[in-house]
Design goal:
The protein is α/β, with parallel strands linked by helices.
Length: about 325
């Protein structure tokens, strides 16, 4: 039987504690109904006998204190709420315990912004890790030694797992169930909980607001120029000349400040504008393409799919109000 330790950090988001517990427990019920033994032993583990979660609105009473668990097979770190630095400070005693358990053979999985607690252990240094796309800038600043993969729903780094944002943690839970219990059980859980199985990217849900939370005022001006003139053909040389910088210096400073090259930033601004038009206007894909400054259909579709994970038409059908109404009817 797999021993699963579901951590209950102070300030945890309640849904990411209860959700995994419910799904793993349902696997046991399903197996027992077929005359098979339960596969998972799920325990809630805290640092104290009572744990305030969801901003203190709820209190969770863990089954056991983490320090009293000698050995476990899988540790699940749920999402944390509020200021991440404060949340990590409140839960710092989990960190050496997680590392020690991993050294004894335990696998570790983080859900959504639980990645901040995972990254604080050092276990994902030099490895890939996912988190909620809205938390990506803060994560990069706090953990530059971790390879953040902003688009991913799931990462699997040799027994260290992470998931993308919000309820996409359920995709990681299904992934783990498939690994431990097999595809058939995972499919049944997918149907029981109505989880879109095998989804691997959170890119369609990302809203690009530009990374302006940095100290380079000249680069911020360059970003604002791009955003005000994205319909035009903007070159790196033009930007460098406009802001009296050498091309290499501009590229270096831009990448450092925004985590994007200049051309990547221009593409993301154009695609974000295209997404808005696809969601709200009656324009067809070609009209949207021209409106955001593309003239090459193939290039537009390729760039759009690279950034969002789906084609412009698929995006429109997914998020446009009228298109969605037609799909439902």
């Amino acid at each position: 039987m797999k021993h699963i330790t579901l951590l209950v950090p102070k300030g945890a988001i309640l849904g990411s504690v209860e959700g995994p517990r419910q799904v793993f427990t349902e696997v046991n019920k399903l197996l027992k109904s077929g005359g098979k033994p339960a596969l998972f032993r799920v325990q809630l583990a805290g640092l104290t006998p009572e744990v305030p979660v969801a901003g203190g609105i709820y209190t969770v009473y863990p089954d056991v204190l983490a320090k009293d668990i000698a050995e476990t097979d899988l540790i699940i770190i749920p999402a944390l709420d509020g200021d991440m630095r404060a949340a990590l400070e409140m839960n710092q005693d989990f960190m050496p315990w997680i590392v020690a358990q991993h050294q004894r053979g335990a696998e570790v999985a983080s859900l959504c912004v639980g990645a901040f607690l995972l990254a604080s252990t050092g276990l994902v240094n030099g490895r890939k890790c996912a988190t909620h796309w809205m938390a990506a800038p803060d994560f990069r600043r706090m953990f530059p030694q971790v390879e953040l993969v902003e688009d991913r729903i799931i990462t699997d780094e040799q027994g260290i797992y992470s998931s993308g944002g919000a309820f996409s943690y359920l995709n990681l839970v299904l992934y783990l169930i498939e690994k431990y219990a097999g595809r058939e059980i995972a499919v049944l859980m997918s149907k029981a909980f109505q989880i879109d199985m095998d989804r691997r990217s959170q890119s369609p849900f990302v809203i690009f607001n530009g990374q302006k939370d940095h100290e380079d005022s000249l680069i911020r001006q360059a970003q604002e120029f791009i955003e005000a003139n994205f319909q035009e053909k903007i070159t790196v040389d033009e930007l460098a000349s406009r802001f009296y910088l050498g091309r290499r210096n501009l590229e270096r400073r831009f990448k450092k400040a925004t985590s994007n090259t200049v051309m990547e930033y221009i593409q993301r601004v154009k695609v974000e504008a295209a997404k808005t038009r696809l969601e709200t206007s009656r324009e067809n894909v070609n009209e949207v393409m021209y409106a955001v400054g593309y003239s090459d259909t193939k290039a537009f579709r390729a760039t759009f799919k690279k950034i969002t994970g789906i084609s412009p038409l698929e995006y429109r059908n997914k998020f446009h109000k009228e298109a969605a109404r037609v799909a439902v009817s």
